[in-house]
Amino acid sequence: MRAHAGIMIIVGILLLAGLASAADAYTIQLTNTPTWIVANGVDRATITAIVLNSSTPVEGATVTFSVNDTAFGSMSPTINTTSASGMAQSFLKAGTRSGTAEITAAMTYVDGYGATYTATSKITQNIDHDSPYVPVYDHAPSATIKTEVPVTITFKDRWGNLIDSRNPAEIHTVSLHVHGP
Q: What angle do CA 34, 63, 53 make, to 5 degrees?
């Protein structure tokens, strides 16, 4: 009798250990297309979440999408349910601030036995400035004739974002012409 009780305890522990490891097997794979959007209030990126239990797609999981700062944009829809392929999508509509937005996908899944599983994943979305709009000049108010005067020109878009070179696909060229007597 004692041996049977010991075996039952060991089997029970193994079953509990198996359930605990199954809870850790739920993951979310996130992708974003395109990887760069423009801070113009119009552009958007598709955020795709694939929910897996080990390598098996999970159908019927609820995925909640959020962005770390609404100045970068807004998610729509914020809540979606996974398809038979384990996929749920949302869209980030660009705001008016450039930078790097952090998108979070949080998954909740309740299996047929009432057990609840959760997982979270994050991805970064690059947001580039809009078109150059305002030049800001920085120079000495006066100078001696025949001396060099440093002049700094900074360009910003209509939303105040600095025109920079973060996006390697965007090349900015400036031509300066000086006219005068």
A: 100
